[in-house]
Structure to design on (75 residues):
């Protein structure tokens, strides 16, 4: 069994704060409607692809990535 440190350092407080913030954000995400979650996931994917392509030396806009993604068959 792990013991709890008797002295709480700034690093421990920071770790606790990060966990608490993550937990709060996760709760907020789970309260969103399915449509809103889907829209956020799509926006995140578009941004991720755009960022990756730009970092790889290709110039591409979010709108173009969204256009290409809309033409994909995901079945």
């Amino acid at each position: 069994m792990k013991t709890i440190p008797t002295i709480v350092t700034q690093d421990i407080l920071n770790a606790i704060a990060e966990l608490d913030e993550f937990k709060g954000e996760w709760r907020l995400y789970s309260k969103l409607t399915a449509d809103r979650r889907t829209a956020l996931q799509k926006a995140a994917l578009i941004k991720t692809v755009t960022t990756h392509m730009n970092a790889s030396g290709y110039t591409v806009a979010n709108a173009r990535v969204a256009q290409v993604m809309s033409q994909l068959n995901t079945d």
About this structure: Residues 10-70 form one domain. The chain has a mean pLDDT of 83. The chain has three helices and no strands.
